[in-house]
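In response to reviewer comment 3 from the previous cycle, which asked for concrete evidence that the modeling workflow produces usable outputs, we include below a single protein chain processed end to end. The sequence was submitted unchanged, and the resulting structure tokens are shown without manual editing.
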Amino acid sequence: MTLPARAQRYRTHLLILIMVCVGPLGDTFLSDGMKRIGAPSRWNPAVLFQFFERAFTSGIVWIGIILLIAFFSAYMLALTWADFSYVQPASAMAYGVVAVLGYFLLGESVTPTRWAGVALICLGVLIVGRTPPRTTGTV
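The workflow returned the following structure tokens.
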């Protein structure tokens, strides 16, 4: 049983919204957690073991991992309902969210050139969003 086109589009847009929200949040938590842990001082097995032990026992890192698993789950579902050529560009709106989160939550400096690039990506997302999510038949 297939859904009407309008319901299919709504469901696809909802999944992309989830992707655009939880993916950047997951990346932000993961980035913050890994910066708190710091880089390994050497690349020998004992130091690397301690590094990964700290990473996998960090609550912030696990929040990032869980959010990224939610992103990946929504991404897989979206790909079952819409074309890859629609889902991937539409989910690029996340780049704008990443820049905003990096600036406000991580205190990163975002240059005007980066903001211009993010704006250009978001414009492309708006253009892609005006096309039908699915152009191929069902499998």
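The chain has a mean pLDDT of 90. We consider this sufficient to address the reviewer's concern, and the full set will be provided in the supplementary archive.
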